[in-house]
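Quick one before lunch.
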Amino acid sequence: MKFFVDTADTSEISELNALGLLDGVTTNPSLILKSGRDIMEVTKEICGIVDGPVSAEVAATEYEQMMREADVLSKIADNICIKVPLTFDGLKACKAITGDGRMVNVTLCFSANQALLAAKAGATFISPFIGRIDDTGDDGMELIAEIRTVYDNYDFATELLAASIRTVNHVKQSALIGADVATVPPAILKQLVKHPLTDKGLDAFLADWAKTGQKIA
Ligand code: E4P
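Model of the erythose-4-phosphate complex:
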C-alpha cells in the first residue's frame, strides 16, 4: 500500500519524505487554509519535495470553471494530480482531464455507486472518506471493502485511496482490505512506528548492552 500524507505543511512533508515514507501528498481547501499560504506557492513547493502525485483541488463547482482551474493547477508541476468533487460536473471534468493524460483524484466519495461512476469516468484515484462516515455512526471501513470488491469485479484501473483517516487502525484495516493508497495525517503516520513492547524491549537491550562495557563503533 502506498502512503500519501494528507497535509499542506511543507516541514512535515519534508520530514516524512526524508524518511523514505512518502509516495505522494493530498491537499484540499481546508488544508490550504490551515497552511496559511497561497495555493500556487505552497503546492509548487510540495511538488518540489516529493516525486509522487500531489493532489490539488479545484474550488469550482461548474465544469467550465473546473477545467480552467485544472489548467492553471496543472502548470504548477508534472506531478500535479487534479482533485475534483464527486458531482456530475466533477465526473465530466475527470473524463476530460484524464483524457488529456493528466491524473485526477475524485474526492468526497461516500458510496460504492459513486466510486463506480468515478472509475467509469477514468479517475486515477477515488477518495472514500472513512472518518467522516464513522462520524455519522456508520462504518467507513465497510465502504473501503465494498469499493475494493466492485473495482476487482470489473478490473478497474482506478486506485482506491483510503482518505479521512483518523486512527492507526484505519491504516491497518485499509491495508488488510487491499486499498492501493492511504492518505494519512502526519501525526497518524508517525504513530504507526510506535509499539510499547518495542520501547520496552529497546530499553532492556540498551541496559544490558551498557553492562557489557563494549562499543561497536
Ligand atoms: C484527502 O484527500 C481528504 O481531503 C482528507 O483525507 C479529508 O480528511 P478529513 O475528513 O479528516 O478532513
